[in-house]
Design a protein that fits this description.
The complex is a heterodimer of chains A (324) and B (121). With 324 residues, chain A is an alpha/beta fold. Helices cover 19% and strands 31% of the residues of chain A. Helices cover 69% and strands 0% of the residues of chain B. Classes of the chains: A alpha/beta (324), B mainly alpha (121).
Chain lengths: 324, 121
């Protein structure tokens, strides 16, 4: 009978017993509700061992790939170590490049530690080593790059972002934990149309996903909308225009809420623009990153325009209270 | 006799039904204010639970769950007319998915049986 390791303790799972039943019987109370694989309250992750495929029914592809499963319908077939998240080691690395992408966004490139693996679109938690101040930033690099790239927006009075802008220099040391996040591209369905929408530095994870998708030979159309309040807030415009020239199936649309509209761009509320430009989004896979209210609005608009809930991946950026 | 859930095709069919049903509900201005600001994924999981229950699939939902889960909406003014709209969306969802009329009637009667719990009466 398989053994389940949870928080350092071993539990023997009985004949025909689910992981949830085994845990509950042993006094380890995992939150649960429907106990029939529907409500997803008891979702948990196999850190070692592989959950039976049936125990991942209804989970998104990104969660399946990270070995998440539903404890209430999982009858384990092998020993597993389960938990809510991996404890990631702290990495200490040097800054190798720092340059401005526009007046309020800086690009940091960090050394990539040996053996560090992640998926484009995931984020890391950056740590200032002097006092352990920590903030999350999305990775704009792809696993093929030999550096880690972050796009950091200056937040007024933001402790971390102002320090990065004003003090941090090339060759300085920073630390990080991670990676984490489930807004990434899972290979498969290469002809599926893709929609990527980001506001501000929400472009960072999308920039990684985009390059990943193009390199992995995705053949379906790929549409990227990058929105900012006004044109000076956009960045990496030339590089994205170059991709659009190089790859016939990729289109880039810079969007602004007000002011001058860049060439080939759109003006208006970004929540309305993709469905207005593309029409029905039925069959699309969608990635949404940036300001939470806009990400939520886009999630709803995309769904109403026909995207299946299983095909919407999002990463709303949450800012520290009175800070950034 | 097999359940409507099984006749529909089980879990995969319910997943497809949730997308259709939830989209109809969100697009209906008469009821969509009750869904404003909720986490769409959690809401979809709840609707999957609801559709699984009304089609006779595996579930552990009770009248108490329906009552507790809708109390805050009753306080916002949820009434019979809103429930009528939801049942109408459920009916048209099942029809769109090609479910036979007698099975639709069975599902609707199960859903109808939750009305008093939902409206906290």
């Amino acid at each position: 009978m398989p053994t389940i390791n949870f928080e350092g303790q071993d539990f023997v799972c009985g004949e025909d017993e689910t992981v949830l039943e085994c845990m509950t019987r042993s006094g380890m109370l995992i939150p649960s509700s429907c106990q029939s694989g529907t409500c997803q309250t008891c979702v948990i992750r196999a850190l070692e061992g592989t959950p039976p495929p049936g125990s991942q029914n209804g989970l998104k592809d990104t969660l399946k790939q990270q070995n998440y499963f539903l404890a209430c319908i999982c009858k384990p077939e092998e020993d597993m170590t389960i938990g809510l998240s991996l404890v990631s080691p702290r990495n200490t690395v040097n800054v190798i490049e720092k340059d401005a992408l526009n007046e309020s966004v800086v690009r940091l490139r960090l050394e990539k530690p040996d053996g560090f693996s992640y998926k484009s679109g995931q984020f890391i938690n950056l740590v200032r080593t002097s006092d352990d101040l920590t903030r999350s930033y999305s990775l704009a690099s792809t696993p093929d790059d030999d550096f880690l790239e972050l796009h950091i927006k200056r937040v007024p009075d933001g402790k971390m972002s102002c320090w990065v802008f004003d003090t941090l220099q090339v060759a300085d040391e920073v630390a990080f934990f991670g990676p984490a996040g489930d807004c990434f591209y899972v290979p498969g369905k290469p002809d599926q149309p893709l929609l990527l929408v980001g506001t501000g530095t929400g472009l960072a994870p999308l920039y990684g996903i985009l390059r990943d998708v193009l390199v992995q030979g995705h053949t379906g159309p790929v549409h990227l909308f990058h929105a900012s309040l006004a044109a000076p807030g956009l960045y990496l415009e030339q590089s994205l225009r170059d991709f659009a020239t190089q790859y016939e199936h990729f289109t880039y649309t810079p969007c602004v809420l007000h002011g001058d509209t860049p060439e080939g761009g759109q003006q208006g509320n970004i929540a309305d623009i993709p469905a207005r430009e593309l029409g029905s989004l039925s069959g699309y896979r969608v990635f949404l990153c940036g300001d939470p209210p806009i990400v939520n609005a886009l999630r709803q608009k995309s769904f109403l325009a026909g995207v299946s809930m299983q095909d919407i991946f999002s990463d709303p950026f949450v800012f520290a209270a009175q800070d950034g | 006799m097999s359940t409507v859930y099984e006749q529909l095709g089980g879990d995969a069919a319910i997943n497809a039904a949730v997308d259709v049903f939830y989209r109809k509900v969100l697009a209906d201005h008469y009821v969509n204010r009750f869904f404003e600001g909720v986490d769409m994924e959690k809401q979809a999981a709840k609707q999957k639970g609801f559709l699984t229950m009304v089609t006779g699939g595996p579930n552990n939902y009770t009248g108490k769950d329906m009552r507790e889960g809708h109390k805050h909406l009753v306080a916002m003014g949820l009434n019979d007319a809103h429930v009528d709209h939801i049942l109408c969306h459920l009916r048209s969802t099942l029809a769109e998915l090609g479910v036979a009329q007698d099975l639709i009637d069975t599902v609707i009667s199960v859903a109808e049986s939750t009305r008093d719990d939902v409206l906290d009466r």
